[in-house]
Amino acid sequence: RQAKRVAELNARFAAGGAQHCIEHRPSGARTAGVHAGVLVSQVEPRSSQDFSMWMPRPADLGRDLSDRYAASLINARIRGLYYNSRFHRSVPGIIFAPNVSLFCAYPSGSNSNSKRCNVTGGGPYSSYIDAGYSTLQLDLVPERASCVPGCFPDGMQCGETRAPHRGCSYPPSRLCETLQTWEEVQAGAHFESEFNHLYTEIIVDARSVVNDPVAAIDGFFLMTLASPSANSATRKAHAGFIRKYGLDSAAGPPLVLLELGAEQPFSLAS
Hints:
Elements lengths: L1 H14 L2 H7 L13 E5 L25 E7 L7 H5 L6 E4 L5 E5 L68 H12 L14 E5 L1 H4 L2 H4 E6 L5 H17 L10 E4 L7 E3 L2
Helix pairs in contact: 2-4
């Protein structure tokens, strides 16, 4: 059964991409879906004995980030991840199921951690704590705009009247456009070279994960270039997930090795 789940991950990876997404993704969808690729999130190990790496972090450098996850879509075209691309090292993590809800999507790194709300999951835009990324100009924010964790507000999304020149986010319903923009950037179609990042940043609504982790988590992944301690912590977290939710180890979310350069990047971890 786990071999079948790994095969499904590889099939989604191979088929994913802007064109497949445009042709098959339901209009207006707010979930990740199966047509864009595989949605993963790298998670640096914590020192806690109970390392629940599938749960959002309550704080990061004093910032409450419990309302979202920062993730990336990978497919046969997009093989970059945050740590691989920017820090020349690998970090293991979790694989999200296609049913998780999204807040927004960026075709590159976005510094989403700096875009925070006082009210979990939204609230008045006036509660936005830190604009981050100078592209978010507060004087351009529409009146009564709601704060979207990790994202730009309505009216300032990519393609909208008040959107910044670059660095804006796409709403979940326009996920395919995010992939299309990424592919155009890689082809040198537009934007400056400094915007030419190698990965996407997809902001996941944490409520869709914590409300039903078993349905929201499709697997845990190790990486060859990750530190032995990080991979070891991920193995323990995977075992803890199976134990916590009373799952059959042969039928629960698999522990896989992710090799981004391979034709079939997911394989069962030994």
